[in-house]
Design a protein that fits this description.
This is SWIM-type domain-containing protein. InterPro entries: Znf_SWIM (IPR007527), ZSWIM4-8_C (IPR048370). It holds the Pfam family ZSWIM4-8_C. One of its GO terms (molecular function) is zinc ion binding. The structure is a single chain. By secondary structure, the protein is mainly alpha-helical. Among the domains are: 52-149, no CATH class; 213-332 and 360-419, no CATH class; 882-954 and 973-1056, no CATH class. The protein has a five-stranded mixed sheet. Strand 2 and strand 3 (92-101) form a beta hairpin. It is elongated, with a radius of gyration of 46 Å. The protein starts with a helix and ends with a helix. 39% of the residues are buried. Residues 1-60, 333-355, 500-506 and 643-662 have low confidence and may be disordered.
């Protein structure tokens, strides 16, 4: 239709109609210095950050690239774009062609050969040239209309010149066309007319922006293959953001591109691998799937989509959802959440049929969304007007459509209603999204008010029971549809101040908001969208809700909570917002079982620690009493309480003793406990210097925190805050740190904890900072805090150290009092655990004769029963070192009675102690040596050890210790007389027995070693008067008994005859 083509061609040249659509937000005359992506260059939420990334991919901005010979023929724009030379690349010129139809670019080609889902810089340059300089691009009719005006001669001349100009490229095609036209039976002659690439499509044809589907598939496939690494996760999120922007611009390619992305996600080979192995996907991948599912909800909730489109999407979603590898909504766990189309109030039989519900995949909510429509007249009126209110005469009675002020309500399952808001916002209807958001908030307010009224009637009974079964099975925080985040973003976007040169601003700068009055039909509401944003975030975060099933769902609750709080922290709290904050906090505290901060909550409710920490910090400068009341209320963690109150007998599962290992569903318990600790630490820091508040916080910690490691962390935090480097310590906070430390000691006294020694040392340091009274207290009550070993080796030893005395600047009476307590502790510990504490007790009691004697007697008494030879030898060596050789001898003798050294234990660790005991006895004199030799003979059966002892005793005269009152003869002792005779006989006997033992299982490779052993034996034999004869007889016996070992006996004869 040449006429239609000409008219549309003229319309296409009009800037207001054509230009803005080319680059979504690029308007005529506006300076643009960034590459325009395939489907969007916008200045919205996601666009700004990505524009900076895109800009860096070009050396020059597209607007700076010179365009030559731009020609517009019908719906076809062509020209050449020159890219200037650089230091490394020569100047390059590219031919560019663009086709468009009804305000959309439908195809592009460029000589640069760029393969991407974005336009190349050359296509953008030509497009911008056409937008900014339309007067320099002459408009021509479609080529079919031009040809229509030519006569035969002109047509022949036109064709021949065209072939001549491009004969190398088009001559084969021209000849083929000529042959076909001249053949009456050819296909070309069966069709009327001829195609015209410049004439545009028919008015009935679908038109959509150019999308290189193959490139989309390849890019998504590449990013998925990288497993979320190398920035691929960010790239995929960027593609999701592009889809949202396309939806906002009402570009039909949005759903097309999402379909292509989804197909590649479903073809990811890791899905079947994860399913076969029974392992869950990575967190990054799981988050991408969540966003994919949420995007499909947006697509199917398009308020203006056609029924056939929705039916097509539903078929596709069902096809994907039926595949075995399709990820489930909450990992591998079942789901008990209500259907997306259910109303706010759930039916009573919900829990009964929840088990029969089919599996829920990431696409289930989108499939359910296909059942929703926008035809409700009340809904239409809400989103179409700011001034939709109920008539004044209808405001007295109850209404499901309006509140008491006449403002419209929207009573729908809250996440579903929020999904509608997200869909409106995503499809480019921000005002409509705002109106529905306000209606939802008014509904939530009314619901909150009614819940307060219900609680007032039940308050007495619930407080008596101390527990409730009321809870929300479906939490709004961590929900797949992110209802709280959706409402908050919708409201804050309406209040965001857009600064000039916003594209040049770093993405890390926080947004700036202003109060924008709520457009409403009610007079003087005085509310702003910003205050509503804060209010709805607080309402959603404060919702009392049960902990969901599964690791991923629980982790998502924590992550979503942190995301919302991060956005809340971007708000600068002025007087209006502080008033909103105070009001909502009071309502949350008074909300009973409907609020996570109410007086009574369900035992398995999601804790409020992270939320309360934000509220505490935000409220503290404005209302400290409310801040502390709220934070102290939030400190609880009911799921860790050992028993439920006796009144709640109707639910026996609440009575189970909850040890974490016996409660596997709370996968994030460690994180939740750490958040509880963070809340407590925040309060401790804020309460510094306030004795009453510190005491209250301390009581809350002792009541609610059940982890010794976390209480220890709090104690360390309090100690650090209480002892700043540049000022005097805060004694009140120091005492809190000490009390927490004492609690940790009591909690870990009878349990294994790898940090126990660190905790004990820290407690002594803390008590030292508090003062001498604190040290005396822990010494006097050691048995409730420490093991005997800890009390003597760490606590008492540190208290009695020189550094501690100097640190405390103690006078003599104080030092004596502290030392007396330490000695008493040492004796008590030695009595209780002499094996491990005796030596420490002796060391601590050295300076007090009576105490030292008492400690020594404790050791003697315990020596015959519970102490080992190594412990006794250690104490004996200590006694000798301190100048008590006779006491050392006595302890060494007792140690010998516990020792048993076999014939083959010639490397036993006790050998050194035995040799030392022998040397000690020898140095004391003949009597002591005579007393210990029988003990050695009885305990030691190793020939080499006995011979070593014998050799040492014969080298010097006994009694060299020089003990007063003792006479030393100075004569060497004879092996023929007592006490060495007994030792010599035992040694010879040990050699004989050891020889026979070794010969029983000897191998040829040990023959040489055995001969050396016999040589040492001969040296010992020769110490006896008839030793030569004894050894000869011994050798003869060996030859006779072991004559079968011919080679060995030959070696014996060679050495010993």
């Amino acid at each position: 239709d040449c006429g239609r083509g000409a008219r549309d061609c003229e319309l296409g040249s009009g800037e207001p109609h054509w230009a803005p659509t080319l680059a979504y937000g690029v308007t005529p005359g506006k300076s643009v210095n960034f590459p325009v992506p395939l489907f969007l260059v916008g200045e919205g939420e996601q666009g700004g950050e990505e524009l900076n990334t895109l800009r860096s991919s070009f050396i020059l901005p597209p607007s700076a690239l010179p365009c030559c010979s731009p020609t517009k023929v019908g719906f076809h724009l062509s020209g050449t774009v020159t890219e200037p030379a650089t230091a490394t690349e020569p100047e390059m010129t590219y031919k560019v062609a663009i086709s468009f139809d009804r305000c959309k670019i439908t195809s592009v080609t460029c000589g640069c050969g760029n393969k991407d889902i974005f336009y190349c810089a050359h296509v953008v340059a030509l497009s911008l040239y056409r937008i900014r300089k339309p007067e320099q691009v002459k408009l021509r009719l479609p080529i079919s209309e031009t040809l229509f005006q030519m006569n035969r001669d002109q047509l022949q001349k036109f064709v021949q010149y065209l072939i001549t100009e491009h004969h190398t490229e088009v001559l084969p095609t021209a000849q083929k066309l000529a042959d076909d036209i001249l053949s009456s039976n050819s296909e070309i002659n069966q069709t009327h007319g001829a195609p015209d690439p410049t004439a545009g499509a028919s008015i009935d044809d679908e038109n959509c922006w150019h999308l290189d589907e193959e490139q989309v598939r390849e890019q998504v496939k590449l990013f998925l293959s990288q497993g979320g690494y190398y920035g691929s996760g960010k790239q995929l999120n960027s593609m999701f953001a592009k889809v949202r922007e396309m939806l906002r611009m009402r570009d039909s390619n949005g759903a097309r591109m999402l379909t292509l992305i989804t197909e590649q996600f479903m073809a990811d080979p890791r899905l079947s691998l994860w399913r076969q192995q029974g392992t869950g996907m990575t967190d990054k991948c799981r988050q991408l799937w969540d966003e994919l599912g949420a995007l499909w909800v947006c697509v199917v909730l398009n308020p203006h989509c056609k029924l056939e489109e929705k039916s097509c999407w539903l078929r596709q979603l069902r096809k994907w959802g039926d595949m075995d590898v399709c990820p489930l909504e909450d990992g591998s766990y079942g789901n008990e959440l209500p259907n997306i189309t259910n109303a706010l109030t759930q039916s009573s039989n919900h829990s009964q049929d929840s088990l029969a519900r089919p599996r829920r995949t990431v696409f289930t909510r989108a499939m359910e969304g296909c059942d929703l429509h926008w035809q409700d007249s009340h809904l239409q009126r809400i989103i179409s007007s700011d001034f939709y209110v109920s008539p004044s005469y209808q405001r007295d009675g109850e209404s499901l459509l309006f509140n008491a002020q006449g403002q419209p309500l929207w009573l729908e399952h809250v996440p579903t209603a929020c999904a509608r808001v997200d869909a409106l916002r995503s499809h480019g209807y921000p005002k409509e999204a705002l109106r529905l958001t306000v209606a939802i908030i008014n509904t939530l307010r009314l619901q909150q008010q009614r819940q307060l009224e219900i609680y007032k009637h039940q308050k007495k009974e619930l407080l008596q029971r101390g527990a409730t079964t009321i809870t929300n099975l479906e939490g709004w925080v961590g929900h797949p549809l992110n209802p709280v985040g959706c409402l908050f973003l919708t409201l804050t976007e309406a209040c965001r101040l857009e600064e000039e040169n916003c594209l040049e601003i770093s993405g890390s700068r926080p947004p700036v908001y202003q109060h924008v009055p709520v457009a409403t039909g009610c007079q003087d509401s005085g509310e702003s969208y910003l205050s509503l944003a804060l209010e709805v975030a607080l309402m959603g975060m404060g919702q009392q809700r049960v902990m969901p099933e599964g690791l991923y769902a629980q982790d998502k609750v924590c992550r979503n909570e942190e995301q919302i709080i991060a956005r809340l922290q971007e708000l600068e709290l002025d007087a209006v917002l502080v008033q909103t904050l105070r009001k909502q906090c009071i309502l949350l505290l008074e909300g009973g079982p409907f609020s996570g901060l109410g007086e009574v909550i369900q035992r398995e409710s999601v804790p409020m620690h992270t939320f309360a920490k934000y509220l505490f910090s935000a409220l503290l400068p404005h209302d400290a009493d409310l801040a502390y009341k709220l934070a102290l209320r939030a400190m609880r963690l009911p799921v860790l309480e050992t028993t439920a109150p006796s009144g709640d007998v109707t639910h026996p599962h609440h009575l189970v003793s909850v040890v974490p290992s016996r409660y596997p569903r709370w996968f994030t318990l460690g994180h939740l406990e750490s958040q509880q600790c963070e809340l407590a630490s925040t309060m401790l820091t804020a309460a510094k210097g306030d004795m009453l508040r510190l005491r209250t916080v301390l009581e809350a910690i002792q009541k609610n925190i059940h982890s010794s490691s976390l209480i220890f962390k709090l104690a360390q935090d309090a100690f650090k805050i209480a002892t700043p480097a540049d000022s005097n310590p805060d004694t009140t906070l120091l005492n809190v740190a000490l009390e927490l430390g004492l609690q940790v000691m009591r909690m870990t006294l009878s349990t294994l904890n790898w940090r126990r020694r660190e905790m004990v040392r820290w407690l002594v340091t803390c008590a030292t900072e508090v003062g001498v009274r604190a040290l005396l207290s822990i010494l006097q009550n050691w048995y409730t805090l420490f093991t005997p070993t800890e009390a003597t080796s760490i606590v008492a030893a540190t208290v009695m150290s020189h550094n501690t005395i100097l640190r405390l600047s103690l006078d003599y009476p104080q030092r004596e009092e502290l030392a007396g307590c330490a000695r008493t502790l040492a004796l008590q510990c030695a009595m209780k655990d002499p094996q491990n504490c005796a030596l420490s007790a002796l060391t601590l009691c050295e300076k007090d004769h009576i105490a030292f004697e008492t400690a020594y007697q404790i050791v003697i008494d315990a020596a015959t029963t519970g102490m080992t030879y190594s412990q006794l030898f250690t104490i004996a060596r200590y006694m000798e070192h301190r100048g008590y050789p006779l006491r050392a001898f006595k302890l060494a003798s007792l140690a010998m009675t516990h020792l048993n050294l076999a014939y083959n234990q010639d490397t036993h660790p006790a050998i050194n102690d035995v040799l030392w005991a022998c040397a000690l006895s020898h140095s004391l004199g003949k009597n002591e040596l005579a007393a210990i030799i029988p003990l050695m003979v009885k305990s030691v059966h190793c020939a080499t050890v006995l011979s070593d002892i014998l050799r040492r005793c014969t080298m010097t005269a006994p009694g060299l210790a020089g003990i007063p009152g003792r006479r030393n003869s100075g004569k060497l002792m004879s092996t023929d007389k007592a006490p060495l005779r007994q030792l010599l006989d035992a040694t010879i006997s040990a050699y004989i027995n050891t020889t026979h033992s070794r010969l029983t299982h000897i191998s040829p490779r040990h023959y040489g070693e055995f001969i050396e052993f016999l040589s040492k034996a001969r040296e010992t034999f020769l110490l006896a008067q008839d030793g030569h004869l004894q050894f000869a007889q011994f050798i003869d016996n060996l030859k006779q008994i072991y004559k079968g070992k011919k080679k060995l006996m030959m070696l014996v004869r060679e050495r010993f005859g």
